[in-house]
Amino acid sequence: MPKRTDIQSILIIGAGPIIIGQACEFDYSGTQACKALKEEGYRVILVNSNPATIMTDPDLADATYIEPITPEIVAKIIEKERPDALLPTMGGQTALNCSLSLRKMGVLEKFGVEMIGATPEAIDKAEDRDLFRKAMDKIGLESPRSRLAHTVAEAIDALEAIGLPTIIRPSFTMGGTGGGIAYNREEFLTIVESGLDASPTSEILIEESIVGWKEYEMEVVRDKDDNCIIICSIENVDPMGVHTGDSITVAPALTLTDKEYQIMRNASIAVLREIGVETGGSNVQFAVNPADGRLVVIEMNPRVSRSSALASKATGFPIARIAAKLAVGYTLDELDNDITGGATPAAFEPTIDYVVTKIPRFAFEKFAGAEPILGTAMKSVGEVMAIGRTFQESLQKALRGLETGLTGLNEVEIPGLGQDDDKNAIRASLGTPTPDRLLKAAQAMRLGLSDEEIFAACKIDPWFLEQLRGLINLEQRVRAHGLPQTPGALRALKASGFSDKRLAELTALNEADVSALRHQLNVRPVYKKIDTCAAEFASPTPYMYSTYEAPFGGAPVDEAEPTDARKIIILGGGPNRIGQGIEFDYCCCHAAFALHDAGYETIMVNCNPETVSTDYDTSDRLYFEPLTAEDVLEIVRTETSNGTLHGVIVQFGGQTPLNLAQALEDAGVPILGTPPDAIDLAEDRDRFKALLDKVKQKQPENGIARSGEEARHIAERIGYPVVIRPSYVLGGRAMEIVRDTAHLERYITEAVVVSGSSPVLIDSYLSDAIEVDVDAVCDGTDVFVCGIMEHIEEAGIHSGDSACSLPPFSLGPDIIERLEQQTREMALAIGVIGLMNMQYAIKGDDIYVLEVNPRASRTVPFVAKTIGLPVAKLASRVMAGESLASMKLEKPAFDHIAVKEAVFPFGRFPGVDTVLGPEMRSTGEVMGLDSNFPVAFAKSQLGSGTRIPTGGTVFVSVRDKDKPRILDTIRKLEHLGFSIVATGGTARFLNEEGVPSTKINKVLEGRPHIVDAIKNNEIALVFNTTEGAQALTDSRSLRQAALIHKVPYYTTLAGAMAAANGIEAFTRGTLEVRALQSYFN
C-alpha cells in the first residue's frame, strides 16, 4: 500500500545531547528519517536540543526546534505546530519516554496527534519488564527467572526468590543506566536504589544471573503487511555480563550452527509480532548457555538502536531510512534498495560475504578514581568498526583503527606477574571484564596457557580463542624467521590483518622497510564493495573496504573502479572520544556537501559506524577503513590511478587526520587548506612563542620544560598556581592546574610521559579571568570572524566543558573589536586557509592568547546555527581555492542569544569528583536559544537534564574572595522565596550583609551535616566554590551527594550567578518555543 495521504506534518523527537549509552547513532538515524520523510513531501518538524548534529541544521527539517526535550516544552511545540503524527522511534530512549509522557498527559489526544512507527501499547510491552516477560511466556520463549520490584522492600523479597548473583535492570532506561550485577547484599541494595532512581516508572527487574553465557542480537525490520526481514545477526565476543555497547561484537554471528541461527531468527520475528511493533526496525537480544544450548530472550528495543546503526553500516541497508518510510504506510516490497540502485527491493534480506568487527573505545583515563571494569551499565564513549574477509583480518584492522596506540594484538602487561603464582595472576586478570581483556587473552597464550584454561577464566567462546591462537602463532613465526620474501607468503600474512607497523615491531625493522618490501613484491590491498547482496547483483554504490585476501586462482579482483573526476579526499575523525566527538564529523559532512556542489567528487575515509559521515549517501565515494598512514596512502594510490586528486582535507576530523598530515606530505600528497607546517607552528610551543612576539600579542607568563628539574624552576619563577599542558593533545588530555611543589612532583612523572619526546608548557594560571573562544575563516588575504563566545565559567575550565554564550553577555564593544583585530592578525601571520579557533583570557583590560587551533574546532556547529551561516561549508570552499571576497559575506547581525552547556557522564563513574578543570570530561552539549540571556541559560540547563528549582533551600559555601561577589545573587534568590543555608564563614558574611541564612555543618564538623541534608532531599540547589587541594578534598562528598540525588550544583562563581538569573527568568515568565528558522527569516 502506498504512503498515507491523511497526514501532512510529522513531528520527530531527537535524542538530545550525546551521553554514554545514547550517542551519535541517533544523530545518524534522525538525519536519515528527516531526509526520507521530506522527500515524500511531508512537513517535518524536529525537536532536538543538540547543536552538534547535522540533524539540527536548518535545511534538514521544515521547522527545527533546538529546545529542551521535556514533555512540557514539546507540548508547547505541538500546540504551536499542530503536527498530524509523531514518530518516536528515532531518538533513542529520550524520544520514547518523552512520547509516552505526552500521551499520559493527554497532549497527543488533545491536539489529535497520532503516534506512528510504534504504538504506545507496543512500547509499553517491550520496555515494561513485567509485560515483556509475560509476552515471552505467551509465545513459549524462555526468559531468565525474574521478579519485579518498585521499592527496596519488594526488591529484598525478590532477592530471596532469585538468589545471588543477580542482575538488576531498570525499566524504560537505556545503556544499562542505573543497573548492574550484584554479587553480595550490600552491592544489591546500592544498585537497587540507583535503579529505582534511574527508571522513570520506579520499576526494576531482578533477574537470575546468566553471566558467562553467549550473547547475540538480531536486527529485524517489519512492515504493516507483516513482512519481516533480518538485517543481520550480531554476536558479542564478550560473554553476558558486559553491556553489548561495551562488548567487542562481530557480524554476522560466527559460532552458531545453521539450525541454531534459524531457531533464533524465528524467535526474533515471533517477538516482534507478539510485542506488536507494527513497522520499522527493532533489535532482539538473546543469551545462549554454552553448556547446554538453553536459549533465553533478554530484551528487545522497539526502536532504532545503537545496534541498528552498526547493522546499517555493516550491511549497507539503511534501517532508519526504511523504517521512516514504513511508518508512513509503505511496505518493504514497494521500496527500492538504494545500494543496489533498485536492482533489489527493500524486502530482499541482506547477505554479507565478509566479517565486521566493532570494538568500543573508553575514556577511563579522564576519570581519576573510576575503575576500568565493565558491567551491565555502559561506559564506552565511542566505537570503531572494521571490515575484512575473515575475522582475523577485521579484528586486526579494528584494533589499529581504535587509535589507542595499538598496531594489532600488541603485548600487554598482566598485573601481578613474577611475584609468585603467575598462573593465578593471569587467571585473575582474565576473570575481570576490562576494556583490554582480549589483548590479555592473547598475552596469556604467549605465556603458555591453553585455550581451555583461558576459556575457563573468561568464557570467551573457544572459536574466537582459536582465531587468536592462529594470529599468535603467525607472530611467533615472523619473529623467528623474519618477513616472507615471496608475494604469496607475504599476502597471506597481510590477509590475516597484520599492519606494516606491527610486522616491523615483530622483526625489529622500520615500518618504511616493511612497506618497501611489500611494494617491491607488489603486495597491495584490493577494495571490495558493500552491496547488501554478496555480489549477486551489480552495485553502483561505491561503499568499500580493503582486503588482502588471496583469490583461488589468478590475480586478486579489485572493485574500486576509480573515476576520472577531479576529486577531494576528506579524512574523518575515527571513533568518538571525549575531546573529539560528533562536531568534527559534522564538519566532515559539510565539507562533502559543499565540495560536491562545487563540482568535485568527494571521497570520505572513516571508520566510525555511528556517524552521518559514514552514510553511503553523504559523499560520492566511501572507504570504511582505519585512519592510519598505511591504510590512507593505499586509498590515495588507488584513487590517483584515474582522474586528478585536487587534495586531501586533514583539518576537519580533529587530531586524528592531523596526525597523518606529515606522512601524506612526505608521500607527495597535496593537502588542502592550512599547510601542515602552519599547524605545527601553532602546536609547537617554541615556534608559537616566537610568533606571538612578532605580532605583539600577550601570553600568560610561561616557560617550556623538557625535564622535571626545569619544570620546578619555571613553576617557582612564575609562582603557583600554574597550568601545565603537553604539546599535540586534544581535549586537554593531561592538562592540570598545579597548586604546589608536591602536586608538581606528582604530575611531572605523568605529563612528560604523555608528550613522548615533546616538551610541556607551564603557564601562569590567570585566576578570575574571562575566557573567550573566537571562530574565524581565513583565505590567506581576508579573515571573516564568525563568532565570539564568552565562557560562563572562568578561565582554567576546559573550553569544551564550559558553558558559553554567543554573543558575549558581559564584554564591551571595545574589547570585542580588539578580539576581532587580534584574530585577524593571527590568522594572516600563521597563514591559515580555512577554519581557525582562538582562545583568549581577558583580565581587566588585558587580552591574553591562550591557544590557537588552525583547524575545525568543536564550536563550529554551535556558531553556525547561532549566526545562520554554514561556517564549515564556507571554509571547505575556501580550502578548495575560492576567495572570501567572492562569497560577499556580511558581518552576522542578530538579536537572539545562544547558550551552549556541556553534559557530563559522572553518573556512570561512581566515586569520581565532579569538579571541573582544564582536562575535558563532557561527552556532549545542548543549546539554549532565546531573545535574552537568562532565559537562554535556563533552557540550556533544562536541556542538559538539570532540574531548575523554583523554591526550597539553597546551600552556599564559597571561598573568601567570592563572598562579596555572590551577595547580590543570594539576595535575588532570597527575594524569590528560597531559604538559605551556608557553612560557618559564608553564613556569618551573609547575615552581616542582611541576608538571613542558617549555619549548617561541613562534613568535617560533625553530624547532621550538609551531605545528610542533601540525602534527606532538604536541599534544592548547591553553590560551592573552593580553593586549595585540602578544601577540594573536603567538599568532594558534598558534590558526590548532589550528583547522586540530582540536586543542581554549580562549582564556579560565574555558573552560580548565571543559574540564579536563569531561575528568576524561569519562575517569573513562561518559556516560549521558536523554530530555528524563524530567528533568521
Describe this structure in words.
This protein has 1081 residues and is an alpha/beta fold. A hairpin with a 4-residue loop joins strand 27 (770-778) and strand 28 (783-794). Helix 2 crosses helix 3 (92-104), helix 14 crosses helix 16 (462-481) and helix 18 crosses helix 19 (511-520). It has a 7-stranded antiparallel β-sheet with strand order 14-13-10-11-12-15-16, with helices on both faces. Strands 31-30-27-28-29-32-33 form a 7-stranded antiparallel β-sheet. The chain has 38 helices and 38 strands. The longest helix has 20 residues, at 462-481.
Pick out its properties.
1081 residues, alpha/beta, 7-stranded antiparallel β-sheet, globular
Topology at a glance:
Layout (H helix, E strand, L loop, with lengths): L8 E5 L11 H15 L3 E5 L15 E3 L5 H11 L3 E3 L4 H13 L2 H4 L3 E2 L4 H8 L1 H10 L7 E4 L2 H11 L3 E5 L9 E3 L2 H14 L5 E5 L5 E9 L5 E9 L12 E3 L6 H18 L4 E9 L6 E7 L4 H10 L3 H9 L27 E7 L20 E7 L2 H11 L20 H10 L5 H10 L4 H8 L3 H20 L5 H8 L5 H8 L3 H10 L5 E4 L13 E5 L18 E6 L10 H16 L3 E6 L14 E4 L4 H11 L4 E6 L5 H4 L2 H6 L9 H8 L1 H11 L6 E4 L2 H11 L3 E5 L9 E3 L2 H14 L5 E5 L5 E9 L4 E12 L9 E3 L6 H18 L3 E10 L2 E8 L6 H8 L3 H9 L4 H4 L9 E7 L20 E7 L2 H11 L9 E5 L5 H13 L3 E4 L1 H9 L5 E2 L10 H6 L5 E4 L4 H6 L1 H9 L4 E2 L2 H16 L13
